[in-house]
Structures are given as C-alpha cells and as structure tokens.
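Re: the 247-residue chain
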Amino acid sequence: TELPDKIVNNIFVELNEEQKKLYVSYLEKTKQEIDETIKKEGFMKSQILILSLLTKLRQICIDPKLIIENYKGVSAKKESVIDIIEQTITNGHKILLFSQFPSALKLLRKELEIHKIENYYLDGSTKSKERMRLVTAFNTNQVPLFLISLKAGGTGLNLTSADVVIHLDPWWNPQVENQATDRSHRIGQKNVVQVVKLIAKGTIEEKIVELQTKKQQLSDQVIEGEDRDQIILSKLTEKEIREILNN
C-alpha cells in the first residue's frame, strides 16, 4: 500500500519583546561562558557544558518559564501553538504534538486546561501497559490531541488516527523528528499528513534547522538513549558551534 503524502510546513514564530531581550542576554552570557571554558579546558572537555548552555537557549525559545520560575511574561511559541491547535481541532483533525522537553509539554498542558482542550500525554516514564492504553484510547475516541516527548515517541506507536503532526521545537537530528512524524504517517493512514514545525525566528532554532540540512551525516544513524545529544554534539566542530551562536 502506498502511504499518503506528507506536507511539511515550517512556521517561524517571532519572539515577543520580553522574550527577545531575555534570549539575547542569555545568548551573550552563553558565548562568554563557552569562550572561557574552551580557553581553560579545551574544546573536547567543554562539550557537556556547551550542551547544557545550548539547551537553555532552546528552552527560552519555547517558554522562558522552563528555566526562570518566576517569569511572568507570555511565550510567543505557546500562544502560536494554542492558536494552531484550536484551528486544527475546529477543522476536525487529530494532532500529535512532539517536544524534546517533557517539561515544556507539561507547561503546555496547563495552558490547554485553561482553553478546555482535552489531551493525552506520554513521556519516557510512561509504563508500556499505560502507553498501549493511551494509544488505543486516542485511536478510538474523540480526544483530539496527544502530547508526546520526542524520546518516548520515536518508535513503536501506531497513531494513524492523527493526520496533523506538530513539532514544538526542532531537534539536531532530523531522522529522530521523522521517526516521530511516522507515528501517524503509516499504513492505515488514509489522509495526507500535515507536519508543522515551529521555529523561533532569529534564534538558535533557525541555526539547528540550517544545520539539519547541512550536516546530513548527523542523521545517518538514529541514536537512541540519553547519550544521543552528546554524540550529535561531539560531531560538531568548534567553528560550527560558534556559528550556531552567531545571531
């Protein structure tokens, strides 16, 4: 059976003023810290720190609350994704929404509650019996939205009742994103699958998307498990990391 087509749309989200200021100040701090560490420790030894600094920048793009507890401002990306979800549901579609960060999905759930949007949630800590129950429920009932962490949702889930896939944040390795998208784009899917990727404009997220296309070797193997962030990062040169941080 031939699978239906996938249509991929990149949607660029403009950060609001407060978020932008915060992002820029963290970016400057990050560059400084990376410079100092590389000088002191050398590039190879600095990679764990570099990864955690880049992760913070990625989290600010989604929602500053992920790293600043008392952040009172709004998140441009959260507002965009709620709009897209509401429109999509109104048009009678079911959605899979993926993020690299379970914490981001949990924050989003609070917002969904305010908007009275029913959803299911699954991450790496969801037991396999419960996973099966959620998958069956989603495929057979009217709940329109399933939030899944990227690490948990890459394989083994058949969710063809959804025909819209949203990626809340881009991931270094496009193969991992594609694997997640394929949860809905499988045999048994009768519709064209719409894939929406939300990218914060003028940030590290744009650089990740550029890198995805430039460095195909990053996706030659799908790396499973906790170490994959580090393995992918270890394939980047110091020059490439500096390019990622040039805004």
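Strands lie at 6-13, 95-99, 120-122, 145-149, 164-167, 193-200.
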